[in-house]
Predict the structure.
Amino acid sequence: MMLLIDGAVAVGLVWMALRALNARRLTEAVIVFIGFTGVMALAWVRLRAPDLALAEAAVGAGVLVVVLLDGLGRLAHLLGGRTPLRAAAVVLLPLLSLALVAVLLRALGDLPSAATGLGPRVFAALEQSGVENPVTAVLLNFRGFDTLLEVFVLLGAAVAVALLRPLDRALPRGAGPITAGPPQTPMADWYRRRLLPVALLVAVYLLWAGGSAPGGAFQAGSLLAGVLALGLLTGTPLAGRPAAAWAAAAIGPVAFVLAALLFAVGGHGVLQYPPGWAKAAILGLESLLTVSIAAALTLLVIGIPRRRRP
Amino acid sequence: MTSALLYAGAGVVLFAVALLALFLRRHLLRKLMAANIAGSGVFLFLLGTAADGDAPPDPVPQAMVLTGIVVTVSVTAYGVALLRRFADETGRDTLTEDGGGP
Amino acid sequence: MIVLEGLAALLVAVGVAFFIAGTVGLLRFPDLFSRLHALVKADNLGMGFIAAGLALLAEDAGTVLVIVAVWVLALLASVMVSHLVAHAAVREGMQPWRKKR
């Protein structure tokens, strides 16, 4: 029974990918791709990776959707010229692709069983890590380096996107900055006053839960980014303070580096938490990282919140 | 658990078809989506091979893929921004044979 | 126990049916407003059924509370988003679809 469901999800993934890659209209391709990320989240659940399912659904489906639809909105009016592909490429490349599938599937059959993984060692050391969720333990303790570099990639992308933005000009109708002119409706007002605090509370819960259950800084951060984006769209007065947004985006990575150096100077090695301090250090770092991830994702999606010109 | 290997196999196919589309599609937004799908294929392969068996799943590849997802989103957003700037400067949405400058 | 599981499966199945109806509406309806209408109403109801089905199988009251909270929050968020989309469409001057005579 479960094998049947897994088969359906796996075939569905391939089918949706083919549809997304081969759709005639660009809009259709983007929409099928969005559906594809949703099915990916299902696949993560079936592979017993609920942390990944949360991240894929929030960061992948949520943030990617806005980025791609935004790109689509600005590009739909272009009529780029099409030079035909060389015939050799059209014939040869699919054959090479097919050969790649055959070789990789063959290699998949030859792989040794999963007993060679690092799993047992992680579970053996979990007690010293300060958290109970093994994925959080790997991210924030055993492989803190990866996470440190990752948050800098995110920050770097936000900076790069901001640098590329100022020359956007002569926008077609309907493609203006989405923060322009929030609706003055009772519902937007209600969201701002009542729902925003509740949503912030949910983000804090997700961060706290990450210590022992699926969740953590990335899931909480991307949820927070969604809340902030919706807040900006309903006219919550967050706009017009780019300096604050950038400070929030930088505080997590900076704190991470400072903590790493501090522990190194204290004689524990870079990013090695002193005994007994692991839980406090991870919780503190994760809280700051959540703020930074939320800020960086919001900057990626909405751009620098600009003051509206009168 | 053979269903984990099923996902690894799907990952292989996703990677191959997306790589093919990366070469064959001309529109840059399509290329970007193809790169994303190829990445998803790699992630599926990684976790599908790791989750094989009845032992609790190995958290190390899960953490690696989580990092990978965030990096993919960052790179995609950067790609769309680059693409938009390119379209603004040139009025086109594809690269041409001669390199595609303005 | 078997009755409870059967009931849960039935509720989830009904929820899935509503999701399918909402998706068909999204694909087949003629304009943005009617598509939003199909999507938000049918999907939220479908999610309610699925949440109810899962709550029947929950092990303790806390889990039930979390499931209900998830449903209410998703309901509020999707209503808010569709309100914003519809509002933006009206402001752009989009006309609702009318049956051609």
Notes: Chain B touches chain A through 78 residues (CB under 8 Å). Residues 17 and 32 of chain B are 14 Å apart (CA to CA).
